[in-house]
Write a structure and sequence with these properties.
The chain is an alpha/beta fold and 226 residues long. It contains eight helices and twelve strands.
């Protein structure tokens, strides 16, 4: 069964190119011209991943992202944001709101398909019985991709989970921005310290008091102290 992609972009010509390219790569693709149209589609259909432009008339992509991440039925759908070159603040905001990745326009369909596949690999269920790490009130179940902080189940995005998992595997060790970026399949101009910071900030907030155990090593990266 083909993986289904929802493309939310008010620019029809761009959406048409994306749609055609994704179908050639074997994906099923649907298009919504606005955030409002996307919400209507999501009422009756289930998508494996959403590609979302940030700048749209009416409700912006960032507002739609925040809305989707706040709803139980859509919070776990991975989202890749589509941005324009130079809007670093928008990218950081998107990651802080729960986006899993972002692409800077213009981009190739080949790059887009690779990003989609990378994100979907992170949400693919693993075999049962895999490793569970627990320390200092924090528990990470790699197989079920579940996190508990002080016994409370925490909802992380796939990208946030992968970052926390990497930190949990190397407690006390400093992980550089580059190592963390590689772990979430970001590289080059996309692998900025600001982008990683946005994800880490989100993880800290969701973990509550335990979030303080993720320490910033200024100019280098982060480490987990438990």
């Amino acid at each position: 069964m083909s993986l289904s992609v929802l493309v939310v972009d008010d620019k029809f010509d761009i959406a048409e190119v994306i749609d055609k390219g994704l179908r050639q790569k074997g994906f099923e693709s649907s298009h919504a011209e606005s955030a409002e149209d996307a919400l209507k589609l999501l009422e009756g259909e289930r998508f494996d991943i959403i590609l979302m432009d940030i700048d749209m008339p009416g409700m912006s992509g960032l507002k739609l992202l925040k809305l989707l991440k706040g709803r139980a039925d859509t919070a776990q759908i991975p989202v890749i944001m589509l941005t324009v070159l130079g809007s670093e603040a928008q990218k950081v905001n998107a990651l802080g709101l729960g986006a899993d990745d972002y692409l800077v326009k213009p981009f190739s369909v080949r790059e887009l398909a690779a990003r989609i596949e990378a994100v979907l690999r992170r949400v693919k269920p693993q075999e049962p019985g895999s490793e569970i790490l627990a320390a200092g009130g924090l528990e990470v179940d790699f197989g079920r991709r579940e996190v508990r902080a002080a016994g409370k189940k925490i909802q992380l995005t796939p990208t946030e989970f992968d970052l926390l998992r990497l930190l949990m595997k190397r407690p006390g060790f400093v992980l550089t921005f580059e190592a963390l970026a590689e772990a979430i399949n970001q590289s080059g101009r996309e692998a900025t310290s600001e982008a990683i910071y946005a994800h880490i900030k989100n993880i800290r907030r969701k973990l509550g008091p335990l979030g303080e155990s993720i320490e910033t090593v200024h100019g280098v990266g982060y480490k987990l102290r438990l």
